[in-house]
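Weekly structure sync - notes
Attendees: PM, LS, DV (DV joined late)
Agenda: review two folding runs queued last week.

Item 1: First target. Sequence and structure tokens pasted below for the record.
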Amino acid sequence: MTFFWSSWITVLSIMCWAGILGVLLMVLKYKPEVEEDGTTGHTYDGIQEYDKPLPKWWLVIFFGSIIWAIAYWIFFPAIFPSKWEGITTVEVDGETVPWTSHNELASDLESNNKVFTDNFEKNILAKAGASGATKTLAELSEMQATMRRSETPPADLQSQIDEKVAELAPYVEKLAENPNALKVGSRLFLQNCSVCHGSNAKGAQGFPNLTDNDWLYGGEASHILTTIHNGRVGGMAAWRDQLGEDGVRAAAEYVLSISGNQPGYELDQAKVAQGKAIFHEPTNCVLCHGEDAKGMISTGAPNLTDNIWLYGGDRETIRETIRYGRAGVMPEWQTKLGNERIMLLAAYVYSLSDRGAETDQAKGKVPASTTAPKAAKPAAVKES
């Protein structure tokens, strides 16, 4: 709040308080002339008016409320909040800070979170055989606190935090086998993730299906942890200006020709050849999607050779994607949920992923090209 508004509200409040107090004191001091029978001589509808003092209990409450208001102004930043912080304090991040509604909320959240984390360690981690995560979580929490407090954190601090997050992956895999952990994780998913991914986690157009084995940024526990912690910003550039409409149609025709959904389409082979040349230009599509068009986890680029699409794989939708590009955001949840809840959420998502294809590939039952995992599913052409 600016000094103008805080001062205006303060002055107005003091004027109101002084006015009410002045009226009360004036009434208490005023002594009207009374008749011998104690009445003022006024009669209303046959009712005589007496001059009686205010009830003592009423005065006690009234003056008590004034004293309470003055004490409130002293304890809390009610008088010129921009200048006076009050004498009340709360604990936030282990530090004693002046009271504000924001600080009180943060303090209450920390207290409630302490109850949750204690229960998490005793009744979930311990029973899942993942107690080793406790030390890593403590170190991670300390690093994150340092990051929040420091205006100029060490240059490598974020990479150290990411490494600590990755160290939690084996424990997430253990939690994914624990019914109690999955029960809590499912509740967290419904409360926070279902608005985009759906209550069954199968996604929708523009929102990835989390129950298959197709991931843009990697579907291992460490990848899922990183995605939930830091979020993802996926982007497919718009190519209309660089390629022109003919180039867009040619590139779309080539993508359609190599995808798993080309049956049913009569392809224009001239455009396919033209699109292939465009695709393999060093600064064009091949830069992200790779020479084999199977995508790259490092860039979050999808595999274009299968039949899994985030925005749709028909000819016109592919053209629209190339023409105008796509953009999608997976928000970060580190500051909203905390490390322990993210572990439970990651365990739940990890448990949903279809790993049967991976197992079959390892046994040599299916070609590797059909099972290459992608990753945590933000926006590009294909589904993540």
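Item 2: Second target, run right after the first with the same settings.
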Amino acid sequence: MKQQIYKGKLTEFHPLKIAKKQDLTKNTFSLEFEIPTDLAGLFSFDAGQYVTVLTEKDGAEYINDYSITAAPFENKITLGLKINSDKSAASLIHNQYSEGDLMYVSKPAGRFTLVSKPSEFRTIVGFAAGIGITPILSHFKNILHQEPRTRLFLFYGNKNFENLAYREELDQLARFYGDRLQIYYFFSQENTSNSFFSGRIDEKKLNLIINQILHLDDTDEESTIWDAVDEVLICGKGEMIKSLANACYHHGIPKNNIHFELFEEFNEDIYPVEKEFPLIENIEVEYTMLGKNFQTELHDNREKILQQLLIQKFPVPYSCKSGICGSCECFLEEGEVELLENEYLTEKEEAQGKILACMSIAKTKKIKLNFDFN
């Protein structure tokens, strides 16, 4: 086992053997790990979660999160990785590691998850772009296996056919579960015989999808398929998530039923801030992180706490700055804040005093935070 600080937290990494390595496209590949019996409990997971992988080269360490593509019932850990550049961690892994090698992997984490409801009739829609298919693939396999009454619709965007990862596995699922799973592929840089499937999946495309695909509902002649949607899953770049999440919300899906996962840093709010706050100036902020105490003063509360600490170049844990990843989760030990939209904390955790610093507006002259907790 190896311990390392990652996103402001002490993270444990365990050596796992690569059981299988497979190229998917020219710039994506998959890894399957062998889980020792004594670590089986530690590496149990929920659909939609990820693991953190630590790699080393020439004395340098690279730490990155990768979504699990397997479903829990498959009893294995498989990942999908995309090589964005020759110097990326994924490129290093692809070039330096082979089947049989050991890699350091953390236990599964993340809250891009759903509560299983095998006895209910549900309609779930997924939107994915590129390597954003990875956690949604895990979700869809799990739902199809666990929920015999649930129907699913997947809208999957890529640049072109050549870059479409997991095509064979997705098509196999569609053939096997043809009465409950429909998959539609979209290409932004390749001509298609039907122009409907050309272009990015965004707000405009969603309007067309609702009106031309999710319209007539064979199970209820008085409503549309979209009217019956219970949950929406979105994974891709920040702009795509922002566009689709707001479009889904404006088309009647409650925010609590819209779930999203980023695969890169995104510094904007997903939903627009609709509240106004009384101006407070000269705010004293104290916080604890990794056993060290820090203190500063914020000019006012026009901006969120984490963002202001970063501007002042204080060390704080973060990744997305959008209330999605939970890296800046902390306890509010003193003062009051307004916690804006977040995709991470539960109502119970909020009641316990937990907040996300990236989505918190100070409402008192003094704020005290603690980022150290198990």
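Discussion on item 2: The mean pLDDT is 94.
Action: LS to circulate a short write-up before next sync.
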